[in-house]
Amino acid sequence: MSNRRVQSRLPYLFALLIVFALVAASCGGNDDKKGASDNTTTTQAGDTGGTQPPTGSGFNEPEHEGTPAEGGSIVFGVESTIASLDPAGSLAQPSDILTALAIYDHLIDYDPKGGLTKSLATDWSSSSDLKTWTIKVRTDIKFSDGTPFNAAAVKAQFDRFLDPATNCTCAPTVAQIASVETPDDATVVFKLKEPNAFWANTLAGTLGFIASPTATAKYGADYARNPVGTGPFVLQSYDSLVLKKNPNYWKKDSEGRQLPYLDQIKIEPIPDSKVRLQSLRSGDIDIFQTADTDNIVDVVKGGGDFKVQKVTGTSSTIVLLNLKKPPFDDIRMRQAFAYALNRTEINRVQYQGSRQESYSAYNPSSPFYTKEGEQPHFDLAKAKALVADLKKDGKPTDYKAICIPTDESRRVLSLVQQQMAKAGIKVTNEFKDQGSYVNQIFAKTGNYQAGCFRSPQTATPDGLHDSLITGGSGNVMFYSNKQVDKDLTAIRATTDADEQAKLVKRVQVTAAKDLPVLQLLFDLFGNIHTSKVSGLPAPEPWSLGAIKVAGLYLQK
Amino acid sequence: MRWVVKILALIGVVIIVSMLTFLMTDLLPGDPAEVIAGSNASDPAFVHKIRQELNLDDPLPVRYVHWAGAALHGDFGRSLEQNSEPISDKLRRTIPNTVQLLLLAEIVSIIVAVPIGVYSGYRANGKFDKVTTGVAFLLLATPAFVSGVVLIAIFSVSTHLLKIQFQPISEVGVVESLKTSIMPVACISVGIIAVYVRLLRTDMIATLQEDFVLNARAKGLKSRYILFRHALRPSSFSLLTVAGINLGTLIGGSVIVEQLFSINGVGNLLVQSISSRDIATVQVIVLIISVTYVAVNFLVDLLYSSLDPRIRRG
Amino acid sequence: MADTEIIASSVEAEPASPDDGGFKKRRLGLAFWIPAAWVLLVVFGAVFANILPLKPPNVPDKCAQFVAPQFDLSTGKETIPTYPPNTTIEGVRADLCTADSRPSAKPSSTHWLGTDTNARDTFSRLVHGARVAMIAGVATIAVGLLVGGTIGLIAGYYRGRTETALMAVVDIMLAFPTLVLALAIVAVLGRGLTNACIAITVVAIPAFARITRANTLTYAEREFVTAARVMGAKNTRIMMREILPNVIFPVVAFALVAIAVAIVAEGSLAFLSLSVKDPQASWGQMILDGRSDIENSPHVALIPAAAMFVTVLCFNLLGDQFRQIFNVRDAAL
Description:
The structure holds three protein chains of three kinds. By secondary structure, chain B is mostly helical.
């Protein structure tokens, strides 16, 4: 199910979740914290395994063919118009994320293996109680409008996030911050209210996109359409979506060549995925991003000189259930739904069997996966029995499902509707445009019964925190379990990787019994391009397939 | 003096239309303050502040006056979404695309319909006429999205022939933009050409039976001369009237076609705003479309009465 | 529906000829019977959809998941699953399933018109869609004719202030382009077939008011009406017995064409996802569904498109024939 458009409004919760909770491969997230004593500098530990994509080669791999020509310009097809380029906005659509990655730099970056590495920040460490984080930043860089980048700029950014007038979607996340101080030009100190072993990961996500304080002050509410960062490209205008090379970009490639290679990237929103593929074939665009499995299958099948970078593994399509309202306030109904759901049929009929069925938030290839944490598999007999039971008690067995109006979601929801009907559950499908859809689900008025969504990317043990903890920013299911709360808080308060793994597995087992959320299929994204384009890095673990564009080039 | 009366009537209609638009869209369910508050919608103080800023608690007539007054100054307010954008910016991006499509559709329709219609009327009931009558009838039955789907089916196979994705002039220049406009314009024009051909034909037949034509022939004037100098003018009046009312069909066609071809135009914006309950944008768009429609019909009416001596009254 | 008027007037087969009063009978040729036959077929399907031995319109073919081609992304190979004889999976004989049951399948003996993207039987959905089309087309126009016609009749007969008032309201309604008004109404009421029908009816009423009034005006001045009045007949009686029988012909001719326009309107709204709710079939919704797979399986969208095209064409033809038969001449609008 394609929820990419929903993401544009993935407020607080999921956007944040994706951001924080994410380290694609390695580091049980621990490499950056040190063990015992106070503020000694940290270094990157090596990759400790972590999430690998499902069996089979060719997923999540960088591409580097030929030699980069100097200059050139490409057109990048994206799936939606850009909603906002403000880090205080939702920044959850792949199109928005892609453009943001071009305009901004992060405080902390992910390295190709999924560990954290320096970017605008040169160093970071935390106190032993994990509540005070000291970040050292560079001072030799300027934003593209000339404003110098320094600790004050970072503080200005977080002050802005904390200001209620900004109406930041990140409000629940930055609520952890007690204070932000800048003892000197190159140091930022975050004091958190609760211990959080994963704070550095937050700074490697969308909150870490540092915006020019001059620009945010100047444009105010319109900053979302006039973004200014330190990144490899500069946005010429929101209307034309042309990105021009930043001549003063500070990063160089491994051979010391100035980045970026390209002179210009034009972002072209093309909502229809089939038209996007046609535009590539007819030469109107050079590369495009997609979440449409058909696109990827078509290109892999052959025909034409095109390449696909396949991205998968850490997020899935899910169904959110409202535990506060009937019928899903009854565990039997949730179980009936789980048993009646036939993921195999959906995968075979809609996706030609090319997707991977998902029964838990963590991919089986992840070190944090446990078989006991899997949700019930398809069992029509059990579903029927539960429904009969519910009917006998006079409890409701019908519900309304809502989703965004894409072709894909329409077809999948239709199929699910029929599967439920076999078990005796009557479903009405309703489709709402992304904006109002997200508002309905996340408005905390609990005004839905079941809704489709995309899970957060789960590579760190912290991945489930915001969605499962009582009152969490992502917990729109109104799920509350004391043991789970305890475990999730404990995960954040320790740097012991084994302990974290044990706890997160226990959380999964509990959640599999309570079923607040149902997993469907692991997501599959693709970056499809002509063979002339290369230089695609491995995708960011949290970016829904969007890639950093500084290294893109046209082959000589 | 009739002028004055007519203009007053026009203004009256425009005012009533705007009131109806405002009233109607005000009935849209959903609380705009909550929509704008977005993630902070659960905070009642925050929502209250927004209501105050936007004067959402004022009675309907008061709000209408504010809205209408601002609109007259070109201030259409901001859209109802979290990253709210001035509506005039959205319009600035979308109106040129729709206007380009509609203008091209109208021009193409006239260029194609006039020679066919005239010749059909001239040689009424002849072979050419029979064929065009049949074809026109068929085309009349083809709604925009049927022809759109058929065209896409045909041309999606060989993608090099026609570009499917529309691109505006501002981005790719006139020639490229025209190339990408072919399909959507064809869809819209199909039905309209049929209507124009039929109309011209009927009118032409009637006119050719008139005395003054007989007179001209008796004088020995050539057929073609008669056709275009004398007969076409009265026929063009019907075309003119119809062109005005046709704007409605054009706009309707454009809504569907923009959806089909993913064109970033006013019709598409309208449908999106309806889906996302963006009342403010829906209000503005419906207002603009209706006012344009009324104004164009008024102009046509004016033109008609001043051009046709038979209608003109002292 | 000002645009309907244009279509209606241009559908006229012959230019206005000197009136010979009343109506002249014409022979009903093929041009009448063929479209009439199709319309009857559609109506028949619409009425009896539930009784006819059709496959369930909303349920995917049980075999679909067993015959859909499977694609392995890592190896790049596509396979069509095969099963050893007598395999039963989930209560279905998988070995007996044929490729005709896959989603977007071409017409076959299993599915006469093939399947849609969710492996549901297209023919069955087409027939159930006919029901929607008839409700959206005929029911709405019938109401529009009744209400609008009455308004127009009253306005045209009584003239004076009644007429000015009524027509002022009608003209305001006509100031909104058809689809825009329908969209606005559906936006307010919400999605659904009923609401779409309400929207179409609201749009149809002023159009019928306009045309009925115009025709009433013509007849209201005639001698036989004056005569009836002189003889002391009440107004209502005159309207019903003298004017109505004459006015009815042009209005019905108009109505036939209006039905075609209404069917297209519902189709458009369904295409914009503003009409029927899932999983109900509507021709417009089927076209939207087929649009997503148009490159590989154009027939999924083209079949309902063809159905809509032919139905609309037939109604137009019927309207045209009606005018010819009764030698209807449009009064100036």
